Amino acid sequence: MKARAAALDDADPLAALRDRFALPAGVVYLDGNSLGALPRHVPDRVASAVQTEWGEHLITAWNRDGWVDLPVRTGERIAALIGAAPGTVRVTDSTSVNLFKVLSAALSLKGNRVTVVSDSGNFPTDLYVAHGLERAHPGVTLKVVAPEAVAVAVDEGVDVLMLTEVDYRTGRRHDMAALTARAHERGALVIWDLAHSAGALAVDLEGVRADFAVGCGYKFLNGGPGAPAFYYIAERHQAAVDPLLAGWFGHAAPFAFETAFRPAEGADRLRVGTPPVLSMVALDAALDIFDGLDMGAVQAKGRALTDFFIACVDPFAAELGLELASPRDPAARGSHVSLRHEQAYPVMQALIAAGVIGDMRAPDILRFGFAPLYVGFSDVLSAAGTLETILRQESWDRPEFHARKVVT
Ligand SMILES: Cc1ncc(COP(=O)(O)O)c(C=O)c1O
Ligand SMILES: Nc1c(O)cccc1C(=O)C[C@H](N)C(=O)O
């Protein structure tokens, strides 16, 4: 396996990108699907935004340093990574808030009686947002089905299909093209949450004719903790969207300070308030690493890394109480692999203490994210080896590894 890892690293066309990240020595970082690593050049860019732009240019920086255009500029850069047309993606707010905005837009396009279909593998915040809108609109019914039952639920009747492409727990990937086409045949609108896709998979929003989408800036896009998220509105819907969460940055003329809301042209109408400039500068800078990258190559490396991890773990998995929770077919999963283990919490704490950082999702999932830009095949082998040692020696069974932390 060692020779195979070395050969795969040697043949990796993206291997050089790793040097662009400031990863601590001795750490194998397998949680870029939750918080992406720090690109080396980002601290200087943020420091300059603080010291020069904020410190010296003060409020003139909104125009002089282009702060006001950041949601648009950064949105256009993300659009290029997810197969979206220019003018359809904007960066702002959190994924949850953006989902509220696009789901309320989709509901309003569908009239008074609307059935929303989602699945139980969806990230809880998505379901909370949908439940909130269901409570606010008497004509809205939210139907939550098992992930495998989505296609049947679509056939039974749907007005808005709201799904996350890659399941945060299992890594199972929905077939975006097939489900979008199926929902469209029934006249429905389709919203995709790309939290675990953007920056890792070759998403093609225009190709699949998605209606709306949202996604995170802090995962595979490496925008930093709490980085703003993005939303997508297909061009064909933009003029018809009348924002429920209307705010002055979504107004046609924010600095005219009119009392009545007039939506901005195009996708900008779903912007709400002042952009978080420092976080946006970090995200914008982080996106430099994607310049000129082929997302097909990024996705291919993610598949190779996850395949290799499964191959490394397979020989000892059953004996040591591990069960693969992710699909074996690489085309049917995203860029993370999940393993079930009865003692997932202390096992993950022991892994972190040994320098292998993944995370745990209750009740029993060990989750390992393989960010294609900075994880190598030797890292994968070393993580699998550490996991085997911890399980064989039962070194996870120490009081300090059982103590619960807030963020898991
Ligand atoms: C699929 C998915 N959607 C939404 C979110 C939440 O995003 P935010 O915290 O930006 O609202 C996450 C992770 O936090 C997620 O995994
Ligand atoms: N957003 C996070 C946070 O603020 C703290 C810890 C984790 C997160 C996450 O992003 C979790 C992630 N969406 C997940 O897939 O589990």
Automatic annotation (TrEMBL):
<protein>
    <recommendedName>
        <fullName>Kynureninase</fullName>
        <ecNumber>3.7.1.3</ecNumber>
    </recommendedName>
</protein>
<comment type="pathway">
    <text>Cofactor biosynthesis; NAD(+) biosynthesis; quinolinate from L-kynurenine: step 2/3.</text>
</comment>
<dbReference type="InterPro" id="IPR015422">
    <property type="entry name" value="PyrdxlP-dep_Trfase_small"/>
</dbReference>
<feature type="binding site">
    <location>
        <position position="196"/>
    </location>
    <ligand>
        <name>pyridoxal 5'-phosphate</name>
    </ligand>
</feature>
<dbReference type="GO" id="GO:0043420">
    <property type="term" value="P:anthranilate metabolic process"/>
</dbReference>
<comment type="subunit">
    <text>Homodimer.</text>
</comment>
<comment type="pathway">
    <text>Amino-acid degradation; L-kynurenine degradation; L-alanine and anthranilate from L-kynurenine: step 1/1.</text>
</comment>
<feature type="binding site">
    <location>
        <position position="96"/>
    </location>
    <ligand>
        <name>pyridoxal 5'-phosphate</name>
    </ligand>
</feature>
<dbReference type="InterPro" id="IPR015421">
    <property type="entry name" value="PyrdxlP-dep_Trfase_major"/>
</dbReference>
<dbReference type="GO" id="GO:0019441">
    <property type="term" value="P:L-tryptophan catabolic process to kynurenine"/>
</dbReference>
<feature type="binding site">
    <location>
        <position position="274"/>
    </location>
    <ligand>
        <name>pyridoxal 5'-phosphate</name>
    </ligand>
</feature>
<feature type="binding site">
    <location>
        <position position="218"/>
    </location>
    <ligand>
        <name>pyridoxal 5'-phosphate</name>
    </ligand>
</feature>
<keyword id="KW-0663">Pyridoxal phosphate</keyword>
<feature type="binding site">
    <location>
        <begin position="123"/>
        <end position="126"/>
    </location>
    <ligand>
        <name>pyridoxal 5'-phosphate</name>
    </ligand>
</feature>
<dbReference type="GO" id="GO:0009435">
    <property type="term" value="P:NAD+ biosynthetic process"/>
</dbReference>
<dbReference type="GO" id="GO:0030429">
    <property type="term" value="F:kynureninase activity"/>
</dbReference>
<dbReference type="InterPro" id="IPR010111">
    <property type="entry name" value="Kynureninase"/>
</dbReference>
<dbReference type="GO" id="GO:0030170">
    <property type="term" value="F:pyridoxal phosphate binding"/>
</dbReference>
<feature type="binding site">
    <location>
        <position position="95"/>
    </location>
    <ligand>
        <name>pyridoxal 5'-phosphate</name>
    </ligand>
</feature>
<comment type="similarity">
    <text>Belongs to the kynureninase family.</text>
</comment>
<feature type="modified residue" description="N6-(pyridoxal phosphate)lysine">
    <location>
        <position position="219"/>
    </location>
</feature>
<comment type="function">
    <text>Catalyzes the cleavage of L-kynurenine (L-Kyn) and L-3-hydroxykynurenine (L-3OHKyn) into anthranilic acid (AA) and 3-hydroxyanthranilic acid (3-OHAA), respectively.</text>
</comment>
<dbReference type="Pfam" id="PF22580">
    <property type="entry name" value="KYNU_C"/>
</dbReference>
<feature type="binding site">
    <location>
        <position position="164"/>
    </location>
    <ligand>
        <name>pyridoxal 5'-phosphate</name>
    </ligand>
</feature>
<feature type="binding site">
    <location>
        <position position="193"/>
    </location>
    <ligand>
        <name>pyridoxal 5'-phosphate</name>
    </ligand>
</feature>
<keyword id="KW-0662">Pyridine nucleotide biosynthesis</keyword>
<dbReference type="GO" id="GO:0019805">
    <property type="term" value="P:quinolinate biosynthetic process"/>
</dbReference>
<dbReference type="InterPro" id="IPR015424">
    <property type="entry name" value="PyrdxlP-dep_Trfase"/>
</dbReference>
<keyword id="KW-0378">Hydrolase</keyword>
<dbReference type="GO" id="GO:0005737">
    <property type="term" value="C:cytoplasm"/>
</dbReference>
<feature type="binding site">
    <location>
        <position position="248"/>
    </location>
    <ligand>
        <name>pyridoxal 5'-phosphate</name>
    </ligand>
</feature>
<dbReference type="GO" id="GO:0097053">
    <property type="term" value="P:L-kynurenine catabolic process"/>
</dbReference>
